Amino acid sequence: MNKGKICISICAETAKDLFAQIKRAEDLADVIEIRFDCLRPNELDNSYSKFVELWEMHEKIPLISTFRTKEQGGFRELTQEERDDFWNSGNEIGWADCEEDIFEDSWYWLWENRICSYHDFNGLPHNLFEIYERVKATDADIIKIAVQANDITDTIPLWKLLEKGLIDKEKAKSRKPKKFNYSLKLRFLNFLSGDSLKLQKYMPNLVQEIIPIAMGESGKWTRILGLAHGAFMTYASLDEGKETAPGQVSTKDLIDVYRAKELDETTEIYGILGSNTSVSMSPYIHNAAFKFHNLNAVFVPLQTHNLDEFMRRMVKPETREIELNFKGFSVTIPHKQTIIKHLDYLDETAKKIGAVNTVKIIDGKLHGYNTDAKGFIEPLLSSYGDVQNAKVAILGAGGAARACIYALQSAGADVTIFARDLAKAKSLAEDFEVELRELTKTDFKDFDILVNATPLGMKGKAEGETPVFAEQLKGLHLVYDLVYVPFQTRLMKEADKAEIPKIGGMAMLIAQAIEQQKIWTGLDAPMKEMSAEVLKRLG
Ligand code: NAP
Fold first, then answer.
1. What number of other Cβ atoms are within 10 A of residue 126's Cβ?
2. Is the CB of 505 under 6 A from ligand 1?
3. How far, in Å, from the CA of 434 to the mean position of ligand 1?
């Protein structure tokens, strides 16, 4: 259990909705942030007319007032006059989160806790540490720095900033104890003297907390692991789809799935490496297993575009710049083959397949495995029976296709690959000595089983698409779609139309994850709990 706080950030257009959301957030959050910039201008006055009600709420749970400009991530354009009015309204309730430019001008000393925040929604500023020193030089109680991580290695400086913030905090704590409350007295002096008095010069003992946030999917892990490593607070949305900043996790997921408040610096970290981790079900599946066995381990999204840089700067003991307790990875598109060159050991099955979907880290060494093959064949055998001599058409020639061909050949099936780009697929066909055909509008009446190993139909750009239609499926005995989001793909609907039995990708997803859990923890994974988590999400 760590000491960090979860803050639910609430964005509502009307005062009525705002109060309703605060009521719902009370039971889940440690702190609630009210994004006053979300309210329509007339509703802003309306909410402040319920000042007493807000005070009563603040008695139960700390409330943060935020009124942010569009450039700082606010939800509507604000004039300077509106900002001045807001921050000097005399309605100071609880905590305030204010940007640097307005910090000293407002009646800041009246607030109970003051956050000074900096946001960059475009990327990682080159002068991040200068910005930190500038924000720190205000007399804010809490320093919040949020920058966009466009790739995972952009999170490194942010993480180092957390380390620096904690060192500075310890230094401030160890200085001579204060005889009286400098902060309050000097805040009052500041009020009397206007801008002229720069408080920070007189407040060397101010102990400031830090909240570093890497925004975006690549930065999501910092929101999940920050509390375990000393960040004062992490921000979460009340509901999924109601995020107030990129990469925010819902509070329920932060608490129930990632167990963010139960983690500590010794927590073992696992994660999914891929170029789009936002659609992955793996965090739900693997965290359900860790939770079931009550392990001090967590599984986080690690969205990575440049795998080489991730390995060099964040993983390899000899070159990494930050220390995270990585114990293993699940690997997905497009890194299943390119990861091989980074491994210290390659399992025999993974070598034959030529693709790795699982990495276990033992004493800093990376061991690669492939659980897709077993995960693929198990549901097929239990649904179809023996596949000895069965004629199987595989659509696609990527990493998943490799694992399927290996598993099918090992079980005695006769495989043909169908690919859109024959030149690209040639080496796969040669590696496994299988026939290669072009993926066209052909029918599959000479085949028993059709396997879709392309991303067509997957949530995102390809959702609703299908590699083949009902009329092409006639004569087949089974259609197996590896795509698992959505639960019912367009191809599966085409199979229904053609009245052909089908299997969706979910069965394989769970089966291969169970194998991954065995590799990582040596334990039998709880299939029921893992499946339930996915079904909850996919309906
Ligand atoms: P991958 O390595 O990127 O390979 C994708 C293959 O699909 C490539 O051959 C690609 O052809 C082909 N393809 C892509 N778009 C296409 C299109 N519009 N029309 C025809 N072919 C197209 O991906 P992967 O790792 O093999 O994964 C493939 C699918 O299987 C994904 O949807 C993935 O989610 C799913 N999968 C599911 C599980 C599970 O547990 N259920 C496990 C692994 C994978 P080009 O080479 O020409 O681009």
1. 9
2. yes
3. 18
Q: Separation of 299 CA from ligand 1 center, angstroms?
A: 24
Residue 471's CB is within 10 A of a number of other CB atoms, namely 11
Cβ–ligand 1 distance for 103 under 6 Å, the answer no
For 455-464, write each residue's pLDDT tens digit.
999 988 899 9
For residue 150, give Cα distances in angstroms to 12, 83, 276, 324: 28, 30, 12, 20
pTM for this one? 0.91
Active site residues: 336
b/e burial code for range 315-331 (CB count within 10 A of at least 16 → b): beeeebebebbbbbbbb
SS3 346: strand
Residue 197 in this model has a pLDDT that exceeds 60: no
| C-beta pairs of 99-102 under 8 Å, 24+ apart in sequence | 99/68, 99/69, 99/72, 100/134, 100/135, 100/138
For tokens 């970290």, name the residue. Answer: 269
Res 184: pLDDT: 60
Residue 501 alpha carbon to ligand 1 centre in Å: 22
pLDDT band, very low/low/confident/very high, at 200 (cuts 50, 70, 90): very low
Q: Is-contact 29 64, C-beta < 8 A?
A: no
